[in-house]
Amino acid sequence: MRLAFATDGVMRRVAWAILSLTAWDSSADRAAAAAGDRALAIALANDATQKAAVASIVASGKRKIPLLLAWTLRPPRGVPECGLFGGLADAFGELRVREAIPFLVKHLGTLRSCGVSLAPWLKVPEVVEWSLPAVGALIEIGPDGSMAAMSAFPGMVSEEDRMAAIFVVSRVKGVPGARHFLSSVAEKADREHYWASQGILRLDSSGPGASGK
């Protein structure tokens, strides 16, 4: 009986040790994963390592997508959001992540240079796509990205966002309603240009009511 009791005690201690080691391993694995995720976020936010970080994400397939989407809502503490968002946009575009469209539309006018304008609208289309990562991503995603830009356009206030949305729509072919959308925008711009020009002529004239110069 004593032998049986001793054996039971040893077995209980062994079982406890195994459980403790398993818990420790699990905790260590979680800590290692968290450290790896943070390193990835830092790499995405850094101009020097961003391209390689995006390539590693793309190579892993869709495995990292849930983590990347989580970062759009809650970026890792201490990681520059502007740089991170540019890296995220590049990855979303490469992987054509439709779930990221709301995030991309929200950051349509965000410059890769983190607020330092390099006058992309005065350059070739490829420069525009590179300078505005969310624009390039929506174009890569395709028709869904174009339709999202058209849908969000009426609520856009800033000129940068509106121009970015127009650009996205103009770069994706075969989207229903795209030509009508662009025609409507162009027509409105023409009317505004006409009446603004007429107003300038009137204000510059010397006739009656010429005031407000």
Describe the structure.
With 213 residues, the chain is an all-alpha fold. The chain has a single domain (37-204), classed as Leucine-rich Repeat Variant (Alpha Horseshoe), CATH 1.25.10. Helices cover 70% and strands 0% of the residues. The chain contains 10 helices and no strands. The chain has helices at residues 2-45, 50-59, 65-73, 81-95, 101-106, 125-131, 133-141, 143-152, 159-171, 178-204. The longest helix has 44 residues, at 2-45. The protein is elongated. 29% of the residues are buried. Mean pLDDT is 85; it is low at 2-6 and 20-25.
Shape label = elongated
The CATH first-level class comes to Mainly Alpha
User: What's the number of extended β-strand segments?
Assistant: 0
Order of helices and strands: HHHHHHHHHH
Number of domains: 1
CATH architecture: Alpha Horseshoe
**Approximately how much beta-strand content do the residues carry?**
under 5%
Distance between the termini: 109 Å
Structural class, please? mainly alpha
Helical content stands at over 70%
Summarize model confidence as the mean pLDDT: 85
CATH topology: Leucine-rich Repeat Variant
Total DSSP helices: 10
Largest sheet: none
Low-confidence stretches: 2-6, 20-25
Q: What Rg is obtained from the alpha carbons, in whole angstroms?
A: 28 Å
